[in-house]
User: Fold these one by one.
Assistant:
Number 1:
Amino acid sequence: MQTTNGIKYISSNLLERTGVAHAFLSRVGGASSAPFDTLNFDDRDADTKENIAENNLRVRNAFGIATPVATVNQVHGKTVFLLDPSTTDTKAEADAIITRLRGVAVGVLTADCVPILVLDPVREAVAAIHAGWKGTVKLIAKETVDAMRANFDSDAGDLVAAIGPHIGPCCYTVGAEVADEFRREFGENPACLEPDGTGARADLGEANVSALLSAGLKRENISFDPVCTSCNNSLFFSYRKDNGRTGRQLSFIALR
Ligand SMILES: [Zn+2]
């Protein structure tokens, strides 16, 4: 974990090497008060617009981002939003956002769900993906790679992806129905799903690695640092650990 201007965050060694601006932010270093303490970016609950604007400003100052981080209205689906000069004003319903715009950060908000940041260093494009269990089994990660191929002519073999902090299998038990959906999509892959009582423990990170591999990425181009948001609740918002009332941390990536 690193700190800049009082903001704690995680960066990916793989992405760091490429020089792209990016961070998986923690909940530490913002202005919001409980239960959104402190670096919250979610405006759907009771946190004030002023606090969220202040948090945005602190992050932009800390990381040298010129414009507000572009996000989408996340709905646990598999729609990928293309951010280009004709769509910058849209607040689209989507769970991934892709762009080739320079200096424009794209981001996703999470609290247990998986944030994934992707760079195409050849075609020069980036993506931010939000994958909860629904998005994971809908293969939002693969949908995003397909959209980068369709819009930017990206070759999946060139892509570099980083999987950020999310709830780990240590804390993520699911019922039989969710377990069945995992099995339907990922087969009997013990890395993704481990039986536990009447339900199972699901590994959202491993499942998304599997989705990225099926999309054509190389394993050595995927970084996966398994940091659990629930186990590390003082550092990260965790929807489960905080009993559903909590903030959302931001993960972003930007071409310089
Ligand atoms: Zn855990």
Number 2:
Amino acid sequence: MSGDTSIRTYVLRTGRMTEAQKRALEELGPRYFVPFKPDARLDYQALFGDPRPVVAEIGFGMGQATWRIALENPEAGYLGIEVHTPGIGKLLMDMVEHDVRNLRIIHHDAVEVFERMLPPASLSGLHIFYPDPWPKKKHHKRRLIREGLVELLVSRLAPGAYLYFVTDIEEYGQWSLELLARTAGLRNRHEAFAPHQDWRPETKFEARALGDGRAVWELMFEKT
Ligand SMILES: C[S@@+](CC[C@H](N)C(=O)[O-])C[C@H]1O[C@@H](n2cnc3c(N)ncnc32)[C@H](O)[C@@H]1O
């Protein structure tokens, strides 16, 4: 396992952009994007206009769960972090269609965003849904939940904040359960895996996993 945070947890996919997604990026991006700034800590209050709790999501993909959760929780602020451009375009379109106002997007590597932009002990929650599982042993060092990186993620959670992780890969679920359980400053809210959280809408990767008959493994930890 590797604590080197410069190892990328993703490979940029070249997914085709629809014309509508391209237009959304150009026209709506400036309204909802938070630019990556390596030397400025993000001021959530300035971003959302009040001192509300803020929840981050790493790797929202096409963003189906992201805008729905934000819409259903107007009292919170949400930060979606993703590198996949077509997904960002799609999420922007859904945000406008459903008038979602409490969600901002950072189009950048979440590891660097956590390292350089998010203030320590500042988030009320962190969502990681179906992260790339990197199943080969030689690629385990690219996992988002890995030793050396998980400490960085946890350091940005405020006391009492939750870390909600979902995967369809049993081995990655087990790996993450063991790693999170031995990470200082975290406690499991359940004995082992968490029950399905009814408030979480289905994501694209979840629909695929369920369609292929795979089970879902959920973890709900809390910052102490
Ligand atoms: C397997 S997909 C899952 C997408 C979505 N959560 C879902 O359930 O449908 C993982 C996503 O995480 C994104 N990702 C991985 N590492 C990332 C990072 N360091 N920063 C931002 N996004 C990342 C990838 O671009 C990809 O879209």
Number 3:
Amino acid sequence: MHKIILFLFVSSCLHMHSAQASQVSGERTLIVYLSRTNNTKTIAEIIHQEVGGDLVALELENPYPEKYKTIVKLVAEENESGFLPALKTKVDMDKYDIIFLGFPTWGMQLPPPMKSFLAENDLSGKTVIPFNTHGGYGLGNSFKKVKELCPESTVLKGFSIKGGSERDGIFLAIKGKRRKDAKLQVKSWLNELKISTPK
Ligand SMILES: Cc1cc2nc3c(=O)[nH]c(=O)nc-3n(C[C@H](O)[C@H](O)[C@H](O)COP(=O)(O)O)c2cc1C
């Protein structure tokens, strides 16, 4: 009996140790993002420079249409019906403890492919950190939805920043000076979360 208790104690300490170590080393960290016009991708790359780990773009089995008006209509229908588009991207979640989830605001919601990702992958017991870019109207209910879809995860404070506005012909907006400013903001957010830079 004592041996069992000792084993449980030691294994839980080892687990705590590995979770803490990953917060500083960047190993066992996944940064997965959805991006159409590269604003969210830019933020994902900045986070990757700061924390290391694996950087993965979310790809669909059937890519969305190029035309802005067509994708807006389709996403509105998918949001309405709860349709989850099939993903080409597959991830071995056992490899990770910390998951950064990046996405644009689509129809003031979490985009359907990110809903697919959270439906397909079990993030229980992991640390989840959302980040977002938007066209000027903010993140909508997207962070709230992440929390709802990850009930057994520790969801940390997210980061949201204005990106492009495809509707107005502005595609990648987080570049040049705006990229530098974004990098400072990302660094300060990561400091607040106590996620430190790999050496
Ligand atoms: C289908 C679609 C829906 C969008 N809906 C919104 C929205 O509801 N609110 C908003 O502020 N921006 C909206 N946008 C603009 C994007 O959130 C913004 O351009 C974002 O920075 C794009 O990120 P990306 O470059 O990583 O694709 C929408 C864009 C698309 C393509």
